[in-house]
Amino acid sequence: MSILKVDNLVARLRNGAHIVDGISFEIAAGETFALLGESGCGKSMTALSLMRLLPDGVENAGGSVSLQDTALQQLSEREMRAVRGGTMAMIFQEPGLSLNPVMTVGEQIAEVLELHGVIKESVQAELVEATPDSAVAERSPFDRLRANECLIAQRCIELLEQVGIPDAARRVHEYPFQFSGGMKQRVMIAMALAGKPKLLIADEPTTALDVTIQAQVLSLLRDTQQQSGMAMLLITHDLGVVAENAHRVAVMYAGEIVEQASRDELFGRPLHPYTQKLFAALPDANRRDHQLTAIPGSVPPLGSITNGCRFAPRCDRAWERCHEQTPEWTVMAAGQGVRCHLYGANAAGREKREEGRVEAKLSISSSPFSLPPSLLQVENLKVHFPIRKGVMQRVVGQVKAVDGVSLEIKQGRTLALVGESGCGKTTLGKALLQLIKPTAGSVRFAEQELIGLDAQALRSKRSAMQMVFQDPYASLNPKMRVAEILEEGMTALAIGGNSAARQVHIDDLLDKCGLARSAKWRYPHEFSGGQRQRIAIARALAVSPKLLICDEPTSALDVSVQAQILNLLKSLQQELGLSYLFITHNLAVVDYLAHEVCVMYQGRVVERGTAEQVLGSPKNEYTKTLLAAVPRIHIQQPV
Amino acid sequence: MRFTPVFLWSDYLVFLLVAAVVAGIWYVRQREHLLLPWRRVAQSKVAMVSLLVLSVFLVISLLDTLHYRVALPQQADGQQVFSPEVLSAFDKLVTSLRIQHEKTYSEPFALTLFAKESVTDANGHMLREYPRLRYGGAHLADGQQRAADVLQRALLGGGSGALFAVLVLAALRRLVWRAETITWLLLCILVGVIANLATVYHVLGTDKVGQDVLYLSLKSIRTGLIIGTVTTLVTLPLALFLGVAAGYFRGWVDDVIQYIYTVLSSIPSVLLIAAAVLMMQVTIDTHPQWFDTSASRADLRLVFLCLILGMTSWTGLCRLLRGETLKLREMEYIQAAQSFGVSSMRILSRHIIPNVMHIILISLVMDFSALVLAEAVLSYVGVGVDPSTISFGTMINAARLEMGREPMVWWALAAAFGFMLALVLAANLFADAVRDAFDPRMNRTGS
């Protein structure tokens, strides 16, 4: 018996481009249904159109949604308001932005309780139980109101306890800023649960959270589901989260569901080439010496493909038919559905394509140098930020962002710095570059001490160490063209000869980073996230550094694009003998890329060693927790 | 006719601005990627229409900037003597408007004065009646013919305006039905109608001393534009440099700049301006030998008013820019530049200032209208422009006194209102279109 039934749902922009194009699925009670897809594939729009909360400029253009046999499209806006938060609740990606900062969390939960009248009924019921029938009528309305308020307050505390907030009776009167990110998401879940929903839509509920917090929040969601038997629509791009939480999965690509199956079937035997590629693009230790199977190109712009399969331009198994004819939805045995010509009734001509798949193997072995010389040595580095108070700005305390870190990077090797947000890993990276002045300690680069150098002396050292930043959208000046961006470092450090020689160098860099030379005269906004990250890498390489500090370079990117960037980094290392300090929270990437690993916790390095040691047999308690929290996919590798 | 050119202080500033704009255009024309956003401006209908309206104002004020003095017939010591009256090319163009003074108020298109007066007729009787105007409609025998005459002249003027517009379009080979050409046509018709009517009527009436209100309004445009733009010249470097420096360097630089603008903005600005203007007034009055004409004295006062307004009004923009810079300095591209060892000045000029330009543009245009209004307020307090300078402020100020009168003298106020509205609206719409065109998300180089 399905709670939610979506049939051929279409959402489109005013200009006619379809964002969500003919989506159908069902969710049964007590089931978790995952919508999996990369950014821009329309999964959030699907959720919003279920809630009928589509943003301006996007309209619902057909299809039906029925929730417990109520057709939502036919409801008036007033009736729909009762459904939202009542039968159907939603939690959002960014807990910091979805709570009102000027209301206490208790007030915000109480608001939901009042609106959806959950309490009123139970008050009535309790009163009936507690007193003889005649007494109910005698109670004044005021009394009833008082009792109601009391119960609401009580229920708020119950809900907070249910989502695992300690000392709920006190914290119910606190404001959102007094809660951490994970706690805020718990409050959001409590709010969603307040209306006793039959269906919970969770739109990337843990993307903004750390791994350990993510594990807690996900297990909370699973427990709640078991208790209440509600259905859950989980929207995510994270394959690990899907593998651990979902019962059934639909894979979305460019507004369409391309494959739908139960979790075991999907992970055991993915059918659609896109799904297969997605799995192959995941970095992990087994693929260490191989190049990741990146999907070339990026998601096509909305409405650009009207005929044929939307994945065809990026698919290496596509043939003429894929470009000409839109594939039909094909249901295979065991209910697994797929939208691909390979499995259609008329699948002739596909066999010859399959042989073309060869996994490129990188020629490096895991330890080409027996003992590479050390490039960067950091000893007991401290970065403290003073806390100032009062009129005279007296220093009243220190925030110890980095507190005595020692590490060493060898030439041509990769050191991964792992830790959760706020552990000081980014501060450490910036302190190495002397962008933030370290408080104490020593940073020796190629046997030369960097700390204490004046600006002039430091400038000559700048070219040897460069940084690649996390957010490719914030790391390129939108008002400068690519050539100007790449040239800036060379001009500032007065290297690369005259401007003609620099232009040649820029062309060379663009080739190396897999960008067209014509990209030179364009603005960053004309590129996709992955291309922008390539530009950022090219910018860092422009001054021929020996060490590249990569601060979460792939965390803002989709899995398939992440694979492209990781491949690029790996081949650059091989080609140019670069060393990397790879700052990340993604352990799978560490597994794939790093030679050595440092685990950071609250400003200190808690464990250090080779990647196999640290990830294979962790010694430290924190490392163990961290590793246990990572959602894993247990796929039977096809032989 | 012999004359000598006169260059007032404000004229130099206007020429400076014009030179800067011309140099800017030349620079941009050399560089394709800088030209691109301006191409988009040129494609925007709103931008082009408002630019067309704006350019009418600009042409008038530029003509009004070319000052000269006419040679008088007599000679002194063999030297040519020039009239003490400073005229402009625009004055010459509208001589009839300038010299056709009535006695006092008259309504738009009126044939008689606004108030009854005692007149003695041929028989020596004293009569109370509305006397006929000296110039307005003087060619008409009686009021019955007025409507037909106005219509006829309007049609004639509009017709010739339309003919001119079409001829120009044909010469430019732009004879197409588009928003820009329609606006051009309408503007030409409007100018034609007004020009033809203004020779014999007071189209917008006359003021208390009988000056033509249309003439006053047209002359006010230059004063308004100077107050708007020259003040900006003072405001912009101060606000831009101090705001960006405070936001980027933080620390004691930020503290000092913040203290300065907090103190400055907590002093009532009218008080500050009044004090400064009065001090300047005293200086000017005690040194009459500095000025050879009354116009140059009035002009110096105008320039100083701009400076004083500029010195007191940079705080708002400065605060905005500081806030935006605080946000921008945390952006990763700034850190990338820092890690290349790019100098702070270069980071400010290459990375931060281009990214706060949209704020500057919008707030400058907003300030422009506020400044034109501030001038009116200051004139009301008595610390504005020189009373002999024609400006929207002095017009509104004079009209204000007659608002309580019954029947009301509405036309001076309405004229000032209408002209200011057109000017500020056109500037706002144009700035809006420019900002949109410069949005980096629109910056697609095609191909």
Low-confidence stretches of chain B: none
Largest sheet of chain B: 3 strands, antiparallel
**Helical region count of chain B?**
16
Structural class of the helix and strand makeup of chain B?
mainly alpha
- Give the strand order of the largest sheet of chain A, numbering strands 1, 2, ... along the chain: 7-8-9-3-10-11-13-12
Fraction of helical residues of chain B: 55-70%
N→C terminal distance of chain B: 59 Å
Number of helices of chain A: 24
| Gap from first CA to last CA of chain A | 38 Å
Shape of chain B: globular
C-alpha-based Rg of chain A, rounded:
28 Å
Number of strand segments of chain A: 23
Count the strands of chain B? 5
Helical residue percent of chain A? 25-40%
The level 1 CATH classification of the domain at 374-628 in chain A is Alpha Beta
Keywords:
heterodimer, A: about 650 residues, alpha/beta, Rossmann fold, eight-stranded mixed sheet, six-stranded mixed sheet, B: mainly alpha, three-stranded antiparallel sheet, two-stranded antiparallel ribbon, 16 helices, about 65% helix
